[in-house]
Request: fold
Amino acid sequence: MTDVTIFASRKSEVRRESGSIFRKVHQRTRSKAESLSRLARAKASAELVNEALAAVIWLAYEALASGEPVNVDPATGDLLIAAPWSSRNYDAYGLRRSEGDVLRRYLLEIQRRAAKGRLSHPPLFAFDEVSRRWTLNRADYPTFEDAEGWLDKFQLTPEAWLKWMQHVRKQRRKWRKKEGAILRNV
Reply:
């Protein structure tokens, strides 16, 4: 036998005997690659954000036996609880700051599009510029079931997540650049 044939037979023998090791390495590599995938992370983040949104909806419609809402001001509709899109309270819902920021931008975009008549459904939550508070739209969504229907239509998709995350990152870069200019002038 020549050296080449000896090498080829040994190579296939080694591969056959250590196949399970290579499979394990391949599986570990594939799972690592999946964890690094932007789409996989976007799916996970979108799912978390949608869960947080569902939780705040549930809390917003929580009521006393008399029917009076507990976590929403009955007169103004203002939320009286921490919102997952808040710049301070995102972690109360298990979110990261970036996830809360994306959710806030997404809800503001829904509100903007509805105001321009581009959406057939009004927003469930609206930001009031004057009071600087978020309000629950009980006029259009009087029951929890109505609010769940809104959530079914307006869940954040992984594609929308990627779009809005890019927007949030761009905003942060602008802010940092502006902050750096201010600090240089001091």
Remarks:
- The longest helix spans residues 158-185.
- The longest strand covers residues 125-128.
- The chain has two domains: 1-36, 38-185.
- Helices lie at 3-17, 19-36, 38-60, 97-115, 144-153, 158-185.
